[in-house]
């Protein structure tokens, strides 16, 4: 299979969608991203990397970080996490509050903001520094020691984070946070505001394609846990658009409002596409189009 040609073609297909989405501005520091940027990278399980377009440019990973916090909690033997957060699609926007009230402060899944706040709380308890754990993991997998949190974006999120603060306090009112609300939110913003490239994220996602085995050959998750995370990505990773994403792309995927989408091809590799313009559900229009073109062109899908 000619991976380079496939991702070059996918990026070209994505370019026709530039201008169709809106760059996130509810976190003001994200609003200055270049709406015409588009990149894609594929990292195979055998260690090859293919790149196209702006694949080396860094962007704010935002909710893609939720994938790594979940993996790190489960790796610490976190099966009990599932008593505190569900694994059903919410069918609601990523920052919605409505289900929490009737569902007793137990978020629907670990990828909506409410669920990710609970996962961050657990990782903070387990390790003492959730954001640092994510940074270290990403640096090691991508072999990019420069990978860091953008403090300006983290501060911008905190300053405009009334909704996340409301979610966290509501969850805490149900006794589902172990740490201080402000400490948990600081950690949550700290990992969302990490900056990485398509290349970095494709490399960092590869452990899920390798059924739980990290770049250095050490097993982070059991094969079964890797399957579970991929399944939750497929059903919940792109929020209330997860059905449409599964239909078009046919791979487990996790998006972020920085415009990145990381998708896993179990047994083959991880592929990340990025372009800042978002659809109303908060997923990148051109990045999803690139992944759609890639799986349509290659036939690589879990279906
Ligand atoms: O909490 C937030 O709203 C952001 N830090 C993350 C949201 C996000 O990336 C949703 N993804 N598409």
TrEMBL record:
Keywords: Acetylation, Hydrolase. SUPFAM superfamilies: beta-lactamase/transpeptidase-like. Homotetramer. Gene3D superfamilies: DD-peptidase/beta-lactamase superfamily (3.40.710.10). It catalyses: L-glutamine + H2O = L-glutamate + NH4(+). Substrate binds at residues 63, 113, 157, 164, 188, 239, 257. One of its GO terms (molecular function) is glutaminase activity. It comes from the Bacteria. It holds the Pfam family Glutaminase. This is Glutaminase. Belongs to the glutaminase family. It comes from Kutzneria chonburiensis. InterPro entries: Beta-lactam/transpept-like (IPR012338), Glutaminase (IPR015868). It is an enzyme of class 3 (hydrolase). Its EC number is 3.5.1.2.
């Amino acid at each position: 299979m000619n991976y380079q040609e496939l991702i070059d073609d996918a990026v070209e297909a994505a370019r026709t969608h530039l201008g169709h989405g809106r760059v996130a501005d509810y976190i003001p520091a994200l609003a200055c991203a270049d709406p015409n940027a588009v990149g894609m990278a594929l990292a195979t399980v055998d260690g090859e990397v293919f790149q196209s377009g702006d694949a080396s440019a860094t962007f704010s990973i935002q909710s893609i970080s939720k994938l790594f916090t979940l993996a790190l909690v489960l790796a610490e033997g976190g099966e009990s996490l599932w008593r505190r957060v569900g694994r059903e699609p919410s069918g609601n926007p990523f920052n919605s509050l409505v289900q929490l009230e009737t569902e007793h402060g137990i978020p629907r899944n670990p990828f909506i903001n409410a669920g990710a706040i609970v996962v961050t709380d657990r990782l903070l308890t387990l390790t003492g520094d959730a954001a640092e754990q994510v940074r270290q993991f990403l640096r090691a997998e991508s072999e990019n020691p420069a990978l860091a949190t953008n403090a300006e974006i983290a501060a911008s999120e905190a300053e405009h984070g009334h909704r996340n603060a409301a979610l966290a306090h509501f969850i805490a009112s149900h006794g589902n946070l172990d740490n201080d609300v402000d400490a948990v939110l600081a950690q949550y913003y700290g990992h969302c505001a990490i900056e990485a490239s398509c290349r970095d994220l494709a490399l960092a996602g590869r452990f899920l394609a390798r059924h739980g085995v990290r770049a250095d050959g050490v097993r982070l998750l059991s094969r079964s846990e890797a399957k579970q995370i991929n399944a939750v990505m497929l059903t919940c990773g792109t929020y209330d658009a997860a059905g449409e994403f599964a239909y078009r792309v046919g791979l487990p995927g996790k998006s972020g409002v920085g415009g990145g989408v990381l998708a896993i091809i179990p047994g083959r590799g991880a592929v990340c596409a990025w372009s800042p313009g978002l659809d109303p559900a908060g997923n990148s229009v051109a990045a999803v189009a690139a992944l759609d073109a890639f799986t349509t062109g290659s036939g690589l899908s879990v279906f």
